[in-house]
Automatic annotation (TrEMBL), chain B:
GO terms for biological process: NADPH regeneration. Keywords: Cell inner membrane, Cell membrane, Membrane, NAD, NADP, Oxidoreductase, Translocase, Transmembrane, Transmembrane helix. It comes from Roseococcus suduntuyensis. This is proton-translocating NAD(P)(+) transhydrogenase. InterPro entries: NADP_transhyd_a_C. GO terms for molecular function: NADP binding; oxidoreductase activity; proton-translocating NAD(P)+ transhydrogenase activity. Its main location: membrane. PANTHER family: NAD(P) TRANSHYDROGENASE, PROTON-TRANSLOCATING NAD(P)(+) TRANSHYDROGENASE. The chain crosses the membrane at residues 42-61, 73-93, 99-120. It catalyses: NAD(+) + NADPH + H(+)(in) = NADH + NADP(+) + H(+)(out).
Length: 466, 132
């Protein structure tokens, strides 16, 4: 029976790998997701059949799956796509908490996992247990903070105080000491002390990180949830958990790396936080004698776009906030009827999670082959008549290429300034997240369209219909 | 005659040596056996863990950037395979505390399993090719 369970776990591991593999192309991705579901089903069935549980245990487990499953189903079918980042953060917190619970179960009933008897658990297992526990607890509280920040229930501004990093380092060392003591004694009191300390540390690690750095944080917590699962896998000697944890951990780590590269910042720089506090904003204005900003009306914009040959739309977080994706697609449809070629340019860190803009555009029925990544589309701006920048700012700022003193220097940007005309849909003249003023606003070929992203685009749509 | 006795003596000596060696080997094996039992499963797990990290590394780099959000959805759903640990804990009747923690873990992980796969399916169903 145990052999069958092991084979089932092997099958589930392979199916999970195929689920990730499917995401290499939108065509194969749906199939991949199904492989993932089948793998999970096999894993759960094999575990239930192999556990030799009594009827009471069976009822409890089915009740747990039914309650959790219904909640998950309801949430996932009602959630708006613009709220996706906070949903993912909330889900990460659940994995973290589940890891804490399984670690606790292994502490109180080690014989269920064959790692000893209560009060006398193998040292190696205690070490693995405390790692799974600590990473799980950090994932939980860190994800809760990320959720609150993304959901707007907590200010996205970094929360900073004196000696913050020293405090965190001190707590980290204390955590390490507690782990060593726990491995030596196996005391439940120490177990719960590790849990509480790790919860606190997760909270403190995420509060100094600003709202727009959340793509990195969400990816990193994704990675942590994987490492926590792997740690629990080592504790209870379960190969499926180890394999899946490693897959998820690697995936989150790669996403964090891609996001950091998209901002030309190191992961350490992001994690230390404090970026995006508005301290730099005043200093950046410097120039003084600038050409006045040219503001236009939606009608002007509609006229110019109607007569353009090629338009590139550059969406940013502002489009998500204003829920403007649907109107943008309507605008593109009308323009296409006029014979204009429309495509979309996505910066790797646009939005609040990796791939956020792609999902929103897909939701608005924008075909995915019109949506392009930075390297792919950057050469095309030179041939474009219009760049329509909606709710994006820092990712278009040429200061990243020219101004060595700028906070965003070295960040890869979308070369919108090469287009014949640039429209910026913006609420006002405020700087972007990095607190750096965008000199593009003052260029002669730039026209500002002040107002809410959705309203402005709607007015363009009306003007195009006339 | 003398050569025959010598040969017999040599043979006896050799067999005694062999017996000694066998005994030594047995004692050595006995001494290392507990170590092998502790180390081997861990090494096996570590090997599999590292291999899985490499598989994850190469598979995830092949994911198209447009699908990075669904990637997070799927990885989130499959990391809930931690439900397996919860089931094993809930199945054990030895400790009520362990059983409670197990059921809680199963419930939380189930939110994730159903929610994660479903929200990913919703996302993926929206990605469409240009018509015509």
């Amino acid at each position: 029976m145990a052999t069958i369970a092991t084979l089932a776990y092997l099958a589930a591991s392979v199916l999970f790998i195929l689920a990730l593999r499917g995401l290499s192309h939108p065509e194969t991705s749906r199939q991949g997701n199904q492989y993932g579901m089948i793998g999970m089903g096999i894993a759960i069935l094999a575990t239930i059949l192999n556990s030799g549980m009594d009827f009471g245990g069976f009822v409890l487990i089915i009740a747990g799956i039914a309650i959790g499953g219904s909640i998950g189903t309801i949430i996932a079918s009602r959630i708006q796509m613009t709220s996706l980042p906070q949903l993912v953060a909330a889900f990460h917190s659940l994995v973290g908490m589940a890891a804490v619970f399984v670690a606790a179960a292994a502490l109180y009933s080690p014989q269920s996992f064959g790692i000893g008897v209560p009060g006398n658990i193998k040292g190696a297992s205690l070490l693995e247990m405390s790692l799974g526990l600590a990473i799980g607890a950090i994932t939980f509280s860190g994800s809760v903070i990320a959720f609150l920040k993304l959901d707007g229930r907590m200010s996205g501004a970094p929360i900073l105080f004196a000696n913050q990093h020293k405090l965190n380092a001190g707590l980290g060392i204390l955590l390490l000491l507690l782990v060593i003591l726990f491995v030596a004694t196996g005391s439940p009191t120490l177990f719960w002390m590790i849990a509480i300390l790790a919860f606190g540390l997760g909270f403190l690690l995420i509060i100094p990180i600003g709202g727009a750095d959340m793509p990195v944080v969400v990816s990193m917590l994704n990675s942590y949830s994987g490492w926590a699962a792997a740690g629990i896998g080592f504790t209870i000697g379960n190969l499926l958990l180890i394999v899946t944890g490693a897959l998820v951990g690697a995936s989150g780590a790669i996403l964090s790396y891609i996001m950091c590269k998209g901002m030309n910042r190191s992961i350490i720089n992001v994690l230390l936080g404090g970026f995006g506090s508005d301290s730099g904003a005043a200093a950046a204005g410097g120039g003084g004698e600038r050409a006045p900003v040219k503001a236009g009306s939606p009608e002007d914009a509609a006229f110019i776009m109607k007569n353009a040959g090629k338009i590139i739309v550059v969406p940013g977080y502002g489009m998500a906030v204003a829920q403007a994706q649907q109107v943008v697609r309507e605008m593109a449809d009308l323009l296409k009827k006029e014979g204009v070629e429309v495509s979309y340019a996505i910066h790797p860190v646009a939005g609040r999670m990796p791939g956020h803009m792609n999902v929103l555009l897909a939701e608005a029925n924008v075909p995915y082959d019109e949506v392009h990544e930075l390297e792919e589309i950057n050469p095309e701006f030179a041939e474009a008549d219009v760049a329509y920048v909606i709710g994006a700012n820092d990712v278009t700022n040429p200061a990243a290429k020219t101004d060595k003193s700028s906070a965003i220097y070295g960040m890869p940007i979308l070369d919108v300034e090469r287009a014949k005309t640039v429209f910026f849909v913006k609420r006002g003249m405020a700087s972007g997240y990095a607190g750096v003023e965008n000199e593009l606003f003052f260029r002669p070929n730039t026209m500002m369209l002040f107002g809410d992203a959705k309203k402005v685009t709607q007015e363009i749509v009306q003007a195009l219909q006339r | 005659m003398s050569t025959q006795t010598e040969l017999a003596n040599r043979a006896a000596e050799l067999s005694a040596r062999a017996a000694e060696l066998a005994d030594f080997a047995r004692r050595a094996a006995e001494a290392t056996a507990p170590v092998a039992q502790v180390v081997e499963p861990f090494l096996l797990m570590l090997t599999i863990f590292l291999m899985a990290c490499f598989v994850g590394y190469y598979v995830v780099w092949s994911v198209t950037p447009a699908l990075h959000s669904p990637l997070m959805g799927v990885t989130n759903a499959i990391s809930s395979v931690i439900v397996v640990g919860g089931i094993l804990a809930a199945a054990a009747a030895e400790s009520d505390a362990a059983r409670l923690f197990g059921v809680l873990a199963v419930t939380l992980a189930s939110v994730n399993i159903f929610g994660g796969f479903l929200v990913t399916r919703r996302m993926l169903s929206m990605f469409q090719k240009k018509k015509g």
